[in-house]
Amino acid sequence: MQGLGVSQMVLIALLVALLNLNAGAASEVPRPLGVSLAKASLYQPRAGDNSWTCLDGSRSIPFSQVNDDYCDCADGSDEPGTSACTKGQFHCLNKGHQSVDIPSSQVQDGICDCCDGSDEAQVVGCPNTCLELGAAAAVQRRNEAELHKRGAERRLEMITRGKQLRAEREARRLELEQRRKEQELLRSEKEQLKKTAEALESEAIEIYKEQQREVEAETAQAEQEPQQTRQEASLSFVRYDTNKDGFVEVTELMVDMNLDRDRNGVVTVEEAKFFLDERERVDLDAFVTLAWPRIKPLAMLAEGLFHPPHPPKPETEQAEVTTEAIQPTPPKPSEEQAELAGDEDIEADEEGEEDQYDDEEPDVGVGEASPDVEDVTPPNYDPETQRLIQQANEARNALEEVERSLRDIEQEVREIDDQNNKGYGQTEEWAVHDGQCYNFEDREYVYTLCPFDRASQKSRSGGAETTLGRWENWIGEPKKYSQQKYANGASCWNGPNRSAIINIRCALEPKITAVSEPNRCEYYFEFETPAACDSEAFQADSEKLHDEL
Amino acid sequence: MRFAQATVAIIFALFVLADGVDPGNFKTCEQSSFCRRSRKVQSAGSKYALIPGTLNTYADSLTADLVNKENHHQFAFKLEALKGSTFRLQIDEKQPLRSRYRVEHALKGQPQAEHIRIQRETDGEIVIISEKNKAVIHGDPFRIDFYENDVLVVSVNAKNWLYFEHLRPKTQEQTPEPAQNENQQEQDAAVETPKAADAIDDPGAWEENFKSHHDSKPYGPEAVALDFSFPAAEVLFGIPEHADSFILKSTSGTDPYRLYNLDVFEYIVDSKMALYGTVPVIYGHGQQRTAGVYWQNAAETWVDIQTSETNVVSSLVNFVSGSRKTPPPAAHFMSESGIVDAFILLGPKPMDTFKQYAALTGTHELPQIFALAYHQSRWNYNDERDVTSVSAKFDEFNIPMDTMWLDIEYTDGKRYFTWDKFKFPQPLTMIKNLTELGRHLVVIIDPHIKRDNSYFFHQECTDRGYYVKTREGNDYEGWCWPGAASYPDFFNPVVREYYASQYALDKFQTVTADVMLWNDMNEPSVFNGPEITAPKDLVHFGNWEHRDVHNLYGHMHLMGTFAGLQQRDPNQRPFILTRAHFAGSQRYAAIWTGDNLADWSHLQHSIKMCLTEAVAGFSFCGADVGGFFGNPDSELLERWYQTGAFLPFFRAHAHIDTKRREPWLFPERTRQVIQNAVLKRYSYLPLWYTAFYELELTGAPVILPLLANYPLDKEAFSVDSQLLVQDRLLVRPVMQQGVSKVDVYFPAIDEKKNGDWWYDVDTYQRQERSGYVSVSVDDNKIPVWQRGGSIVPKKERQRRASTLMLHDPYTLIICLDRQSKASGSLYLDDEKSYDYRQGKRIHVNYKFTNDQLVNHFVGKPKYKTDAWIERIVIAGLEKLPSSASITVNGISQQLEVIQHDQAVVVRKPGVKMDVDFVIKLNYV
């Protein structure tokens, strides 16, 4: 090192001083600046030649080049105490507080990053604040421990109540299962009765019909219609099935530009799948019943055959093509559909993804959607026939009633299952929050969180409530029950659907403490509840932390 | 979404468009009366002649009278020689009804005159000589040919497209009667000629409508137009700002290029439409000569370009046959009002021409180092916590970042010079949190002023009459971000002074002297105005119409801001970013390419646009990294960071409707790629800083198109996917989706296709031949080469901000040429204050020859610094040296030499920056 003075060489002297100083002052183990106690043993010169090998083994250098303010090792391990290596780490011992590793980029940059000031040269004058910080951190930990302890008591109550609710649901479910079995038996019985009554009824009607045969001769043609449709369908099946494997696949449909419903010049997989009833491929039967009714109007449109309004055709199925996306309202002209679809904020909540079809639907449906309900006035039956019809009607009604009751049961079972699947925490502590709602007001809005249901927003100056998201799932990492997600809220103008993430912390009372929108249409709620208070887990965490210190 | 509220919803409703701008909102030439009229001359030509006997000559100029032979209106013609192979040509009406506007404040000062002598004066021809240049003035038809060293480089009015509409009184009839129209004076010379040719029967001559807007045009037609041919040129470039190729395209069959500062929403690329800035300087370049014309006019201007769109084949044919089959490239400037005031820049080399232009309009000042580092912006960082936590995240992920930006939402209801007290209750604390980490804050201040009687600024402007006026004399009221807004008349020096005083820290108390400024929307943008800007018949200070000064409005705004920042802290270099700009605005501000789109085509245009801006004076140029509108995917964002890292102004910015895109919100790999790109930028900061100092010193642009340094290489003329950083780096960013290779063009230095040697900056692999080379790239690769023969200074240590690198040591990268030589400069100072102008600086040239590196200081190295040289990398040595020795003050010391990739590293010379030294390589 004699040459240093000659060429005015820099900070090295200072650094060497620091190195020595640290080796003395850190008492326990002498080691270069910026090296943790755990790694101290790795920084020993090799006996004999006084060399040292980079921790990645890439090369050996004289030990005097460790912390000499020049980066020799590719992994930066030779400069733990300087800023010379971009990939290096500096270990702040921070006696009295928590030790941390900081990147070498923060060493000797004039900013005190370690509370013991060890990352900066003495001239910078970083005060050692570790004792104060350590004491403050200890106080905070104690407070938090106390909070968790008291909160955990409340959580226990929530757990008790949650378990009770779960037990009630289980009991109810069992009861429902029992009732279902009863109703199913009843249903077979009613089905039998209905069958008998209908047999009698149709026999009587047949007689009556015989008399009407002549009159109905011309409707025979209409009955042939399905046959004709099948023939058409089969023909196009053969046409579409270009690889002749007995199935029409999505890719085979994608070549037919008539199916480009949004007219953007390509038939997308989604578009093609729509015509295959959302399947990858269909066989002939499925094609005839499911696919052809959807394809046919477009095929006809393409051939110029389709002139709305059209004479009687088996159109009810076609109508379903365009109306299935909306609720079981009668088919409507597509202009109205468009309006309905445009009302996104309201509709999107109700219908989830299905309403996309409404958006994309071009007006291919114009004129085809008039329901083919023939207003036939009932014929005048003789009294006996009427009585049989009456009986059959009653049998049908009786069966329907049983089926309705079964449906109700199934619905309730599903609801219970849904609730059980929501995941009310490890020990049902969250169950009591389901059904509750919490509000938070800021300058402009009132935010509402109804756990396991939805998050929403309403302007304080009035107006409709905007859904920010519906319950989706728990997404905390690594602690699953520390974060909830609500998704598929009302869609934003020119943007995505709104969504909300709920960060959860322990407190004695459930409440929202803050709401923000860091990302457009992505909301963050800070929510506190005793359900998140876990004294043992907290204790375990702090002990782990303590061990590291 | 909070934002989609009341006023803004209305504003957005004005532009509901999915696929970019609706060109129908902006005028075509055909829809602009003066453009129509001026362009019409191209078919018939005009007849102007000097009036014999009116010539007067002076030491550095000559004057004469010019007459329009068709209507006999007379004009004053003046030709002046300026220092540095430049001529200035002015034509005004001899006796106008009303003064015509002459641009002020664009030139950096009074240009220095140069002596002339009359070489020959015959009947129809005057030949004047100024140094090695010659101007030949033809009397009838009027034309001037400019020669540089006896080569004809610029011809003025060679096409006879000069068109000068003299001011005239408005007559009763729509079409003015010729007899009444002429002024009484000077008529005697021409009474016998009928004046029919003087009639302007264009329906838009005296009033004009566009969409729902009416332009009253009280002074009638007053256009000026002139053509410039470049006989020694093959291509034309310049006249920013357009989102188009670097080389100007022919406008035959299309609209002319338009220069009219406009706020274009979602602009489209490959377009001649006007954008935010106007720099009416054009260059003609050929292998032997480069020349330029600066058309100094602040009114709306259209420029027709006549050029044969050459391809390789046709240029080869021309080359072989030795003849030019097409007329030389030409530009036809057409302005709505003002006078003809043209500067002819005679070159002869590209760099000479750029410097001639810089000598007229000035250069950027050397910026503070942080301004050249990485900027993080978004419309908007929502509140103080947001700002602080984004800053902290950069540290958490160990990505350097220097500056956080606040867009309009930080204000109290878009009242500039105020803060939203709810979102930003403690701005000074927030600012301190940043500055304590070596970071800076930039806040936006726009020129539109909210019309709110309880807003002090509006009150004072109203009371004192500081706003731009309507024709009737009322304060003009437009619509912008705050809703109803008025616009200070920055043309009034009193208003500028008032405005500047607002920046004083005792006035604007919620910022510190380290908070810098962003001036946006200063075209000016007026949401409900014609073409989203101010009506042309507004009235400015001095009774000038907005028509006359439109393109200067942003410039005047900047002058106010710049003065304010200088007064606020006289020894600190201001930093301002502006959107609108005019010739000369580079003296005050950096620019960015405005509201671009997250799309590959816009990424590609960021280079083309900044190259054009750089040769037009605006080296300090960048584009919003990631694209302002839309959401870039990982790949586009990565590539954009890599490209932005090699443009002078490096800022990520995004629209309020876009998803957040801070690097840590992307997958880890993307974050790493971004981190690498940012680190690369920081490592080259010494080069950028040196280049900006040398720009201030010499006017040489910081970034350059290939043709600037390789003027002989025809194939290089049109390459605008690559750029040079000075003459040291060649950058070819990856700007296509999903590619594993890019074609890189290595320019030729001579006709024999010899090229420089180029070294890949990552591997030091050498490229020895010119021409296209296909280069493999992975996602992390930024294809950059250092020229053999150059030395590049770097700082390879990482810091969280550039300001914290001040004392860090330097690395010198030496890439050898064929003669095993290299040289390069380094500049350093305190990176913040004006002390460098008092000599506290170090400017040093390094030279490597004969295995020896020496330094030579330019002037005395008076800046005191702890910085030192930690490493010297040498690429291109034929054999590996065994060691090196450094000698300082006659005392030598041995240094270790390590082989690294295809280069050698001299370990730790340790010498300080202000000390003379010699480093010699030793071979055993």
UniProtKB/TrEMBL annotation, chain A:
A GO-annotated cellular component: glucosidase II complex
Pfam families cross-referenced by the UniProt entry: PRKCSH-like (PF12999), PRKCSH_1 (PF13015)
Bias kind Acidic residues: ranges: 336-363
GO biological process: N-glycan processing
Region forming the signal peptide: 1-26
Gene3D superfamilies found in the cross-reference section: Low-density Lipoprotein Receptor, Mannose-6-phosphate receptor binding domain
Keywords: Calcium, Coiled coil, Disulfide bond, Endoplasmic reticulum, Signal
Residue numbers spanned by region Disordered: 216-236, 306-383
PANTHER family, A to Z: GLUCOSIDASE 2 SUBUNIT BETA (PTHR12630:SF1), N-LINKED OLIGOSACCHARIDE PROCESSING (PTHR12630)
Protein name as it appears in the record: Glucosidase 2 subunit beta
Gene label: GCS2beta
From TrEMBL, chain B:
Domain Glycoside hydrolase family 31 N-terminal: 77-304
Keyword list, A-Z: Endoplasmic reticulum, Glycoprotein, Glycosidase, Hydrolase, Signal
Any GO BP annotation: carbohydrate metabolic process
Glycosyl hydrolase family 31 C-terminal domain sequence ranges: 699-792
Superkingdom of the source species: Eukaryota
Segments passing through the bilayer: none
Record's GO cellular component terms: endoplasmic reticulum
Subcellular location: Endoplasmic reticulum
Record region (Disordered): 171-206
Name of the protein in its database record: Glucosidase II subunit alpha
Gene source species: Drosophila suzukii (Spotted-wing drosophila fruit fly)
